[in-house]
Write a sequence for this structure.
């Protein structure tokens, strides 16, 4: 048996020194300032004091952004990338900058299209199967989608996690998270998209690479490293403006329970404060109209569940 | 939010260890930008949890361990050894005092650099990582911890890696010694 211990302990200055010199030469080509800027941007955006997803006046938002290390770190990262001719942004740096950019945002509006395989009829409500482009406003975990299920009215999730649907202004139904019918629960799992946590997850658990080249934008493909699972995001394609580092669009691929994929494509179209009420059923019905909930299960079932989930009238 | 002293401390540490960490990652992973992403990710994760350990004392070991975990897993998944971007590296000198070298020595060093690059490229990822970590001054225990193997296995990896490299590098090293 080879006495590897003694051979390891004997110095091999020629080989070791050559390898060390080789690594040092490679290290000399690294821009440590760019490296630090990228790490700092991520540390700052990971800070627990980042902006909460609650409405603020434009003045307060700007004040927070101006004094927040998030905006400062993003500016440092962007400035260094622009100023240093030898520095080339990596996909991670670009996504981290885009994440920092989002931290100062409040309500976001996206134009969304969803692509389901035909087999999805067994796991998703029939009212969601033939939807054209929709507009979605989001604020953290809250969202509202118009047109709603069966292409009427609106549906969404409020600040308490309740999922509601208002196919017209004359009545609405809501469900607590724990009592959601299976297909509606699946639909929320597909549609529910919190952009900031998504980018955090992309930065932590996805392999990032350049997708293809385009003038004025970065195109980045993010592929999950950890195993896929039902409704987990398995891949994200991001298009990010090179100058502003703002996300222009993204395509999110989610795995469905049967192994198929659903693709959500979102184009960010607007970003401005919205009334709290738009994320509630009450914000989409006439005054005095009831919202049927768990206290009125029969009415809820008779009037809405059948229509939304099965297409029965 | 980082305090000013945290920021200064972290910045100093990242700039001190980061470049060599990037060099190490680039030697393990085919895609240079991916290697850079890995290092940034590892630095972020370590500094995010900096309160849990002594960065200056343990940070380097943790960093190279994290990089090894991520890079070698990628290399194994890709089932290809790295292909360094040789075209951008051709002719790149090792750190030498150019003014002190004769032209034939400069040429020899370029050839040595190319031989080192090729020699490392042809090593299996674990051996490559082991010989590099050894060259960076880590002990058997530290290499074993970084690569997830026993100290004894770390010694074996270094030994075998050096044997393979010696076959490629000895002619150059013998010339340098003259």
């Amino acid at each position: 048996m080879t006495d590897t211990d003694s051979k390891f302990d004997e110095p091999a200055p020629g080989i070791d020194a050559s390898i060390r010199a080789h690594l040092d030469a490679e290290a000399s080509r690294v821009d440590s300032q760019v490296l630090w800027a990228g790490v700092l941007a991520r540390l700052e955006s990971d800070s627990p004091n980042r902006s909460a997803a609650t409405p603020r006046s434009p003045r307060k938002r700007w004040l927070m952004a101006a004094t927040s290390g998030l905006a400062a770190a993003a500016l440092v990262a962007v400035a260094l990338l622009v100023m240093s001719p030898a520095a080339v942004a990596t996909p991670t740096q670009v996504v981290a900058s885009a994440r920092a950019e989002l931290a100062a945002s409040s309500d976001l509006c996206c134009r969304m299209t969803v692509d389901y395989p035909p087999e999805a009829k067994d796991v998703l409500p029939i009212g969601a199967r033939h939807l054209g482009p929709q507009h979605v406003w989001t604020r953290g975990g809250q969202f509202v989608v118009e047109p709603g299920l069966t292409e009427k009215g609106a549906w969404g999730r409020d600040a308490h996690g309740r999922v509601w649907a208002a196919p017209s202004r004359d009545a609405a139904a809501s469900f607590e998270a724990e009592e959601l019918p299976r297909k509606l629960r699946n639909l929320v799992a597909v549609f529910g998209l919190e952009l900031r946590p998504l980018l955090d997850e992309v930065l932590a658990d996805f392999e990032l690479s350049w997708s293809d080249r385009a003038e004025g934008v970065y195109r980045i493909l993010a592929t999950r490293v950890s195993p896929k699972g039902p409704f987990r995001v398995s891949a994200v394609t991001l298009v990010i403006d090179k100058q502003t580092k703002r996300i222009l669009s993204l395509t999110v691929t989610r795995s469905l329970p049967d192994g198929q994929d659903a693709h959500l494509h979102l184009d960010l179209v607007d970003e401005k404060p919205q009334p709290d009420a738009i994320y509630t059923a009450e914000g989409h019905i006439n005054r005095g109209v009831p919202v049927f909930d768990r206290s009125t299960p029969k009415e809820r079932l008779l009037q809405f569940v059948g229509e939304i989930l099965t297409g029965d009238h | 939010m980082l305090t000013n002293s945290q920021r200064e401390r972290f910045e100093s540490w990242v700039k001190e260890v980061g470049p060599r960490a990037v060099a190490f990652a680039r030697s393990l992973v085919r895609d240079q930008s991916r290697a850079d992403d890995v290092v940034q990710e590892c630095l972020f994760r370590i500094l995010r949890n900096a309160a849990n350990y002594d960065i200056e004392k343990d940070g380097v070991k943790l960093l190279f361990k994290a990089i090894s975990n991520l890079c070698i897993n990628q290399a194994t998944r890709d089932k290809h050894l790295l292909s360094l971007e040789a075209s951008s590296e051709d002719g790149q000198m090792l750190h030498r005092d150019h003014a002190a070298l004769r032209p034939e020595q400069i040429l020899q060093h370029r050839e040595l650099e190319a031989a080192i690059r090729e020699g490392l490229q042809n090593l299996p990822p674990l051996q490559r990582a082991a010989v590099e970590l050894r060259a960076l001054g880590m002990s058997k225990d530290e290499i074993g911890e970084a690569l997830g193997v026993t100290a004894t296995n770390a010694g074996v990896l270094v030994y075998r890696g050096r044997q393979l490299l010696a076959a490629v590098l000895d002619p150059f090293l013998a010339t340098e010694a003259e």
Observations:
- Chain B has eight helices and no strands.
